[in-house]
Amino acid sequence: MGVVSLTIEAPETGQRAAPDRPHRRRGRFGFHGAMMTPGLLLLAVLSVIPFLTVLAMSFSRVRLLGGVSFSFVGLEYWARFFADVDLWTQWLRTLVFFVLTVGLEMVLGLGLALCLWKLMRGRNAVLSLLLLPMFVAPVIAGLLGRFLTDSTFGLYSWLLRLVGYEGDILGGSYSAFLAVVAMDVWQWTPLITLITLAGLTAVSQSVREAAALDGAGPWQTLRHIILPSISSVLLVALLIRSMDAIRYFDIIAVTTNGGPADATKVVPIRLYETAFRFFDLGYAAVIGLVMLAVTIAIARVFVGILDRKGLTR
Amino acid sequence: MTQRGVIDRRTMLRGAAALAAFSGLTAACGGRQDVARVATDDRWRQFAGATVNFVSENTAPTAAIAANLRPFTELTGIHVNIITLELTALVQKVALDLAGGESQYHVIYADPYQVLAPYSKGLVDLRELANDPRLPGIEGGFGDFIPTQLDAVGRFGGDAVYALPYDCPTIVWQYRADLFAKHHDRMADDLGFDPTPSGERTWEEYYRIARWFNDNTDDVAYGTGHQAKQHDSLMCDFSNVLWSYGGDYFGDGERVGLYGTVEPGPCRLGSDAAVEAAEFYQRLLAIADPSSRTWDWNGLAPALSSGRIAMCPNWHEYAAANEQAMPGKFAYAPMPRGPVRSANIFGGTGIAINGNTLPNERGAAWLFANWATSPATQLANLKSDAGGGTPTRTSVYELPEVKRAEHRPSAMPNILTAPAVRKAWEPANIGLRPKIPMWNECDTAIYTQLSRMLAGDVSPADAMRETATRFDRITERGWVS
Predict the structure, then answer these.
(1) ipTM metric
(2) Quick one: B224 and B314 in the same domain?
(3) Which range of residues forms the domain containing residue B90?
(4) With B275 labelled, which of A167, B178, B328, B376 sits at a CA distance of 20 to 30 A?
(5) Are residues B311 and B366 in the same domain?
(6) CB-based contact B96:B66 (threshold 8 Å)
(7) Residue B393 domain flag
(8) Three-state secondary structure call for residue B81
(9) Do B212 and B296 have their domain in common?
């Protein structure tokens, strides 16, 4: 048989190709730009303008009487921020709170999801019961927690007294901190369970059967098949909870209001106090902006990981 | 079709609609309209048809007024909307309303420390309205209000009166009279003094009585309870001890408490007397119900009325709830004495009128404020099933039916506290926290340090010195309203 020789023409370079590209790009941008304009305008009204206002507030002393007015004070509030030892302690406390709540919620949520996944009968009923705390408003969860830990009539206080704990749960520094952590974990573990369960149902049955045929035990299957399969889902769950945990407010405000002895005063409580109790709005703007920066940094870390896994496109 | 240069009907209609929408929008954003004034000789009915918005903390007097607004509406023809909020929320809304300049709230519950001191410039000087011949004056004049209350809740830094005394909660010694009677002789023998609560008992004796209940009876779980949560209540509870030991927040404490100032001078909490008071308070809380550290006044009140503790310092307006829970079993006395005096912290509040109100709105608001603090309304509040506070008018306490109600059986349970609070309101016994615009931040500083002291994180001396340092830092920054 004869040999068929195929000659591919080299793409045209230089002067001819160059004019085409900008033309196509401009056209595409024009269409997308037009579609995005209303959204961008709305975003500007809802986010950008308030953001710029808060930024301006952080360099100003804000007066309320006779209409809101700003008087420029330069870096005064930013300098105060870096010298505020209390605030740094509160950031440290927020970090500990963040690690404890998110860590516990991830571990418990994953464990509960695995249990539910294996449950063949009554799964929906159990799942419905499990999800209930998530549908309660955080402030109600806080009130509920306060009643349950009340030393006069609280169920948990009574149970703890039966096992020999005589202290007041919300009256001790450590016990109060652990109590508010527990309340958050109680409320938001179901969300992790739900997201993880959705991920588990997508794990390929054939891969699990193949692993079983190869002699993989339950732990090995979990370690090498299931967890890698749901890692991206877990990462999304972690991202959602992290963003929430850093601005945790309601339950602490209702139960301990930051006490006793500042043991539960996290940064959002401090921010609220500075803005709406002291009306020190310039300094509150600084605290808020730093909180925003931290939240964005956390989100960027997770999005970066998802990006590396190729899950953002 | 539209020909060039010719406007068709549809385009014209569109233009008209756009113009109408724009006009509506500018009208909505533009000037406000005042309420109408009716030409009448009846000074109470000249604003008939107006609506007055009254924003208040959810307190007993407001509950009673809200339950009985009909007499005011019949008298004036004015409709009143009452918005009740928790105090912190109220302060936020009032601050934002004053900033907005729209006067959403015409009549304001003006807490002396959180509203009056920081925002007095945004309130109306009520002397102008009281002296306006077109408006009804105050029955009995300003002089009918209890003098210390008028100064404490109505004035800030001068002679102007920004608020009319509206409620007057005061911390007094509340105790289970039945238990004190039951154990009186045994206690007297064991303790070596007459344990019956009165303004002559000392804090040391209070401590020993509390301990006696802890150690000798099963009638109650603990002798005493306190409102020692990391909250405003902790400052209130401690202040009684502080003043009785001769300590104070600032140098000229009486003037700062009564009239208020923007520049209170250096803080005095580092003094020996203040440290001694803190040491005693720490000792007292060590034998009090351990849950005290989680209670504010709302947590403490049911502890007493449910029979968990034998006595406590609490706001006198809880008397009605006490009587409801265990009728006839409670009694009230002024706070114990320290080395210097008996001090009873006053937590009263006035009602003020928003400075952004338009002239007729202001007149209508004055009618309501005047009526709500009038002797007749205060008497009706005393009898109200909805709660009701105690009067702020001297003339009401002089009424024969009120005097009779001071003794059981009483149809006005709150007035059972009258002998104790009358004593507490005497200038020598009243306790007034500093009326300064930055009080919220100072308040937070002291109750946080006290909470740390009670948790064992710092010593009483360190807690007081640290608080003094913080107070000075806060007051040095000054205040911009």
Answers:
(1) 0.81
(2) yes
(3) 51-168+348-398
(4) A167
(5) no
(6) no
(7) yes
(8) strand
(9) yes
Alpha carbons within 13 angstroms on the beta-carbon side of residue A296 total 6
Return all residues near B432 (Cβ < 8 A) that are at least 6 apart. B148, B152, B253, B254, B257, B258, B345, B346
| Structural domains counted in chain B | 2
Cβ of B437 under 8 Å from any chain A Cβ?
Answer: no
Q: Which residues of A touch B95 (CB under 8 A)?
A: 64, 279
| pLDDT tens, residue order, chain B (481 aa) | 444 445 565 655 565 565 555 555 444 455 678 888 988 889 999 999 999 999 999 888 899 999 989 999 999 999 999 999 988 899 999 999 998 888 999 999 999 999 999 999 999 999 999 999 999 999 999 999 999 999 999 999 889 999 999 999 999 999 999 999 999 999 999 999 999 999 999 999 999 999 999 999 999 999 999 999 999 999 999 999 999 999 999 999 889 999 999 999 999 999 999 999 999 999 999 999 999 998 999 899 999 999 999 999 999 989 988 998 999 999 999 999 999 999 999 999 999 999 999 999 999 999 999 999 999 999 999 888 876 778 999 999 999 999 999 988 888 888 999 999 999 999 999 999 999 999 999 999 999 999 999 999 999 999 999 999 999 999 999 887 6
Residue B26 lies in a domain: no
Inter-chain CB proximity A151 and B290 less than 8 Å: yes
Residues B272 and B142 in one domain: no
Stretch 102-141 of chain B: residues touching chain A, C-beta under 8 Å: 118-119, 121-122
CA distance A122 to A99: 33
Residue B454 domain-assigned? yes
Minimal Cβ distance to A261: which of B308, B441, B455: B455
Whole-number Å distance between alpha carbons of B475 and B266? 8
CA distance linking residue B338 with residue B277, whole number of Å: 9
Same domain, B457 and B353: no
Decide if B92 touches A, using CB distance below 8 A.
yes
With an 8 Å Cβ cutoff, are B440 and A278 in contact? yes
Query: Are both B134 and B177 inside the same structural domain?
Result: no
The distance of B464 to chain A (nearest Cα, Å) reads 14
Residue at A200: amino acid letter: L
Task: Return the number of other C-beta atoms located less than 10 Å from residue B94's C-beta.
Answer: 26
**Judgement on whether residues B61 and B91 belong to the same structural domain of the protein:** yes
Same domain, B277 and B148: no
Catalogue all structural domains in chain A, each as residue range(s) with its CATH number: 23-72 (no CATH), 83-308 (1.10.3720.10)
